[in-house]
Amino acid sequence: xxxxxxxxxxxxxxxxxxxxxxxxxxxxxxxxxxxxxxxxxxxxxxxxxxxxxxxxxxxxxxxxxxxxxxxxxxxxxxxxxxxxxxxxxxxxxxxxxxxxxxxxxxxxxxxxxxxxxxxxxxxxxxxxxxxxxxxxxxxxxxxxxxxxxxxxxxxxxxxxxxxxxxxxxxxxxxxxxxxxxxxxxxxxxxxxxxxxxxxxxxxxxxxxxxxxxx
Length: 214
Hints:
Structural class: alpha/beta
Strand order of the largest sheet: 3-2-1-4-5-9-8
Helix content: 25-40%
CATH topology: Rossmann fold
Largest sheet: 7 strands, mixed
Strand content: 15-25%
Number of strands: 9
CATH architecture: 3-Layer(aba) Sandwich
CATH superfamily: Vaccinia Virus protein VP39
Radius of gyration: 17 Å
CATH class: Alpha Beta
Distance between the termini: 38 Å
Shape: globular
Number of domains: 1
């Protein structure tokens, strides 16, 4: 669980901008929030709670309340829905989110599904919105297959393919995106690379900041 408790959002080059924008009235949604640790950090760093939203396909926040012992304090909008099949909760956020955080989600899917997921994120955004996050990435993009006999397959992107995907999403949705992405080593993130070697020696962490310019 420890890797999923990383407060990656604080490492984002956009983090100070995010906090400033939230303090000035912007809205925020954490897609795939897990226990809500990053939202708690954002609140601790000065963001008001009334415009924060958390989304996950499964309710992990009850465990989060137990873990952090703050059920009486952590009061935000919690939405248990699948981002790929938005219900009333996510539909209510469409076109209203200024900051969208999506950590360690996209690398679970094949490229076609990643593209569809990006389109769903765009539905939440508006001009000027930021989409920020981290995911597993590689210098040379490649497919990943599960054990023999498994149907599992995913696609690890490079910064270049990630940018191309968002350019394609822009053409598809009629929007314009500025995509900044780079690979970070596990040492840069404070982790022993041996702990993640099972994923492949070429797997790094990709940091991204996407700005919807139109």
